């Protein structure tokens, strides 16, 4: 299965903010959209960082409430690892595990076309396993 399969199921919407957005504004975006991660982009919509809820918690722990006035660029993870729609899901699972990150933007021809989370990957891998198990049961029952 490919990354494009996940995007076809979950959609291709990516919530982005620019690097000068404050952590408070980012937290508001996260809460309003009920998501855990934002992609930080430059003025040409190219991913330059990832900001998660954990990054915001770290900022508050280090600087107190005034940390929320800092730009997201101060706490985002960078550089951003990316993938493409034709990448095998198994390959991005390995990439996420080795890099110890949970979200990966998907680029096609230099344009961001989606984002995949480790939860998306696990959900689709479980669906694959269930389909294989069902096919094996059907095969055994028909033998």
UniProtKB/TrEMBL annotation:
Record-linked PROSITE patterns: CBS
Ranges where the CBS domain occurs: 8-66, 76-132
Keyword Translocase: no
Record flagged with keyword Zinc: no
Keywords linked to the UniProt accession: CBS domain
Signal peptide: none
Protein name: CBS domain-containing protein
Upper taxonomic lineage: Bacteria, Pseudomonadati, Pseudomonadota, Alphaproteobacteria, Hyphomicrobiales
């Amino acid at each position: 299965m490919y990354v494009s399969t996940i995007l076809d199921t979950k959609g291709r919407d990516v919530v982005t903010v620019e690097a000068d957005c404050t952590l408070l504004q980012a937290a508001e975006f996260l809460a309003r959209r009920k998501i855990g991660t934002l992609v930080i982009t430059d003025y040409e919509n190219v991913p330059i960082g990832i900001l998660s809820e954990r990054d915001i918690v770290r900022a508050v722990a280090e600087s107190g409430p005034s940390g929320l006035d800092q730009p997201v660029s101060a706490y985002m993870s960078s550089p951003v690892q990316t993938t493409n729609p034709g990448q095998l899901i198994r390959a991005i699972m390995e990439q996420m595990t080795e890099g110890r990150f949970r979200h990966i933007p998907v680029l096609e021809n230099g344009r961001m076309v989606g984002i995949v989370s480790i939860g998306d990957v696990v959900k689709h891998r479980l669906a694959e396993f269930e389909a294989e198990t069902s096919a094996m049961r059907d095969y055994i029952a028909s033998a």
